[in-house]
Write a structure and sequence with these properties.
25 strands; eleven-stranded mixed beta sheet
Length: 568
């Protein structure tokens, strides 16, 4: 379940002439029975609403006075979220002949044509107030207070995200509300301008429209979330942009240094722009320092499930789970123990909107099925990153709806997925034609593979210092000192080991790899650091350097960029 709540306007939406029909009340009850929450968002003042609507206890929260006052029916608690109107404003308005005035806890309301007098009074007193219209009503509130801000305050108390809410309205004061939530709907009797704002225009008017919307929420859920607030761009080609949505399970696959983590970094930025909450399972410390995230765990202290869920309770928190404090063989078990808590939290709140699993072959190994990994049946909103798709649980791969394959083995990555799920490779499957091309396959459709240029991250993120300095690169990504006659086979699975071996080997072996350009090639292809590769290439090409000088030059470049940062 993705859509967790319905927020509805009252007059002209839920009610006709102030009265809610019995069928509409029954529909509201049906929605609550699904576990979803109900919010009422209205321009009315609370005493007036209670007078005309005796069923306020149906709602979890009520936002009155056009966003300025929150009311909790269960405890009858009132909470202003805006200051009270200045008495001088009301007094001067009355002196100007505006007698038809209602003064609430925060709102001052009157009717057209008194908006001119209200604006004149605001200017005379130099107040920070604004006028909001609602089908002839003239509402004066502190600047920036509207139904959207009131709903946001209510959702903060409920630990829900705006993206998981459907809102419905009919008038001018509903524009901000419909633009802010995950899905904005307009009843058939809504103003034409509001219908233009809405994502969904209902066939039914007023209560019948709300009943129609409730049926749509129960039946379609995710499918109502098709606007750009939910669509996450990955890249584009000549035919346009490529996106994923909340129902997708994306597999990002490619060899070391092919740009997988850079793509994930770019996606994290797009998610933050859309206020989509994400949680990264960071197996190798690749996302340490990722902007907009709170990190749990370190290379010395393992993360705990309790603190992860506690942080996720705030919809504004994105969490990076640093798993370096766990042994490789412990990570699947930790992930399996964490998933029930995350699944329960998702069932309750619809968040995190995206679960990002780095090094998915370590967290979701092929040796385990979905039951032993404690994965929920609904795996939507998941991004998995791996060098080895064939080492990921086939049960998990079966849920993949889209693939972004990077690097020289991009085609192979898609073929491996197809073999694992026992289906034929898609049309258009070929190797990328340029180094920055990515193969994108929307597996959930019949579309052929597309070659796209992916999104680039804006943030300047530090290198994956700990992974490359102290981590454990796989055999394919490691460096091997073999010598001119291949008499040795010394493997360096990280940069610290590389420097240690380099210091101990003889000059002939060192220079064999130096003159072959092997160091710059490794830095560029496996470490994925073009700048370090370029600096090393300059040293490799300088024939005036002695073996000791070239060793020192490359060692200094590595230490400057990685070792010092990792130890700090």
């Amino acid at each position: 379940m993705y859509l967790m709540a319905l927020a509805t306007d009252y007059d002209g939406t839920l009610a006709e002439d102030g009265v809610v029909r019995e069928e509409t009340l029954e529909a509201l009850k049906r929605l609550k029975e699904t576990g979803r929450r109900l919010l009422l968002v209205t321009g009315r003042e609370l005493p007036d609403l209670k007078r005309v609507f005796p069923h306020t206890d149906l709602f979890d929260k009520i936002v009155v006075e056009n966003g300025a006052l929150l009311y909790s029916p269960d405890g009858e608690e009132e909470k202003p979220v805006a200051p009270a109107p200045p008495p001088a404003f009301v007094e001067l308005l009355r002196r100007k002949g505006v007698d038809d005035i209602s003064v609430g806890r925060c709102i001052v309301a009157t009717w057209e044509p008194h908006q001119a007098a209200a604006l004149e009074t605001i200017k005379e007193l130099g107040l920070e107030l604004e006028i909001i219209f609602n089908k002839g009503a003239v509402m004066v509130l502190p600047t920036g207070v509207n139904k959207a801000t009131g709903l946001k305050s209510a959702l903060e108390e409920m630990q829900l995200s705006l993206l998981n809410v459907v809102a419905v309205g009919d008038a001018e004061n509903d524009h901000a509300l419909l633009r802010t939530v995950g899905c904005g709907a307009a009843v058939a009797n809504a103003l034409p301008a509001l219908k233009d704002t809405a994502d969904l225009v209902l066939v039914g008017a007023r209560g019948e429209g709300v009943e129609e919307l409730i049926a749509e929420i129960i039946e379609r859920d995710h499918a109502l979330c098709i606007n750009e607030r939910h669509r996450v761009p990955i890249g584009e080609d000549a035919d346009g942009s490529v996106e994923i949505g909340p129902r997708d399970v994306l597999l990002i696959a490619g060899s070391s240094g092919s740009g997988k983590s850079m793509l994930v970094t770019a996606l994290s930025e797009r998610l933050q722009e859309r206020r989509s909450q994400f949680c990264v399972f960071d197996a190798e410390g690749d996302y340490e320092g990722l902007e907009g995230t709170v990190t749990v765990g370190s290379n010395l202290v393992p993360p705990t499930g309790g603190e992860i869920v506690e942080l996720l309770a705030n919809p504004d928190n994105n969490v990076a789970i640093n798993a370096l404090g766990l042994e490789v063989e412990e990570r699947p078990e930790f992930f399996a123990e964490l998933m029930p808590a995350l699944s329960a939290f998702r069932a309750k709140t619809g968040r995190p909107h995206w679960l990002i699993i780095d090094e998915a072959h370590l967290a979701l190994p092929a040796s385990r099925d979905s039951a032993s990994l404690a994965l929920a049946d609904d795996r939507s909103g998941m991004i998995m990153i791996t060098v080895h798709p064939d080492s990921v649980s086939p049960d998990v791969l079966a849920a993949v709806t889209a693939v972004a394959a990077l690097g020289p083995k991009a085609r192979e990555a898609i073929e491996v997925l197809c073999a694992a799920v026992e289906e034929a490779p898609p049309d258009g499957l070929d190797e990328p034609r340029a180094h920055d091309e990515v193969l994108f396959w929307q597996r959930s459709s019949a579309a052929p593979v597309r070659r796209i240029r992916v999104e680039k991250p804006r943030q300047v993120r530090k290198r994956h210092t700990r992974k490359y300095a102290e981590g454990h690169l796989d055999e394919e990504a490691s460096f091997y000192f073999r010598g001119p006659d291949e008499e040795m086979n010394l493997r360096a699975h990280n940069l610290m080991i590389f420097l240690q071996i380099a210091e101990g080997i003889n000059d002939e072996t060192w220079e064999h790899h130096l003159r072959g350009g092997d160091y710059s090639k490794w830095f560029g292809e496996s470490i994925g650091d073009a700048e370090l590769a370029e600096e090393a290439a300059g040293i490799e090409e300088d024939r005036s350097l002695s073996p000791a000088e070239s060793r020192d030059g490359i060692a200094e470049a590595v230490r400057r960029r990685y070792i010092a940062a990792a130890s700090g």
